[in-house]
């Protein structure tokens, strides 16, 4: 098992999760974070820290595409270990449907 970041992180990117991760397995895209499944130790401390409730265990049904997306982009995006500023419209974007199709960006973030 591993944890994965799902679509509600897109354009929310609160980043509360990155500083509690004991193995620094978060990677930053332009408008979302992902978890490297090979580095995740399944401790679960990140899940309750996410205000957008976008982090889920990959054992839940229907998360195969999110496991693939997290795997792919964690290999391409820079590591992030320090919480940065959430987007100005993060609260407004929390809970918006269809974010992957409408807003996902494959561009990397700045990392730290």
Would you give an account of this structure?
By secondary structure, this protein is α+β, with helices and mostly antiparallel strands. 18% of the residues lie in helices and 11% in strands. The protein is built from three helices and four strands. It has helices at residues 64-74, 90-93, 99-103; strands at 3-5, 26-28, 33-35, 55-57. The strands form two sheets. It has a two-stranded antiparallel sheet. A two-stranded antiparallel sheet has the order 2-3. The chain is globular. 35% of the residues are buried. The model has no long low-confidence stretch (mean pLDDT 96).
Write the layout of secondary structure elements.
Blueprint: E1 3-5, E2 26-28, E3 33-35, E4 55-57, H1 64-74, H2 90-93, H3 99-103
Antiparallel strand pairs: 1-4, 2-3
Short description:
The protein has 112 residues and is α+β, with helices and mostly antiparallel strands. The chain has helices at residues 64-74, 90-93, 99-103, and strands spanning 3-5, 26-28, 33-35, 55-57. The strands form 2 sheets. It has a two-stranded antiparallel ribbon with strand order 1-4. Strands 2-3 form a two-stranded antiparallel ribbon.
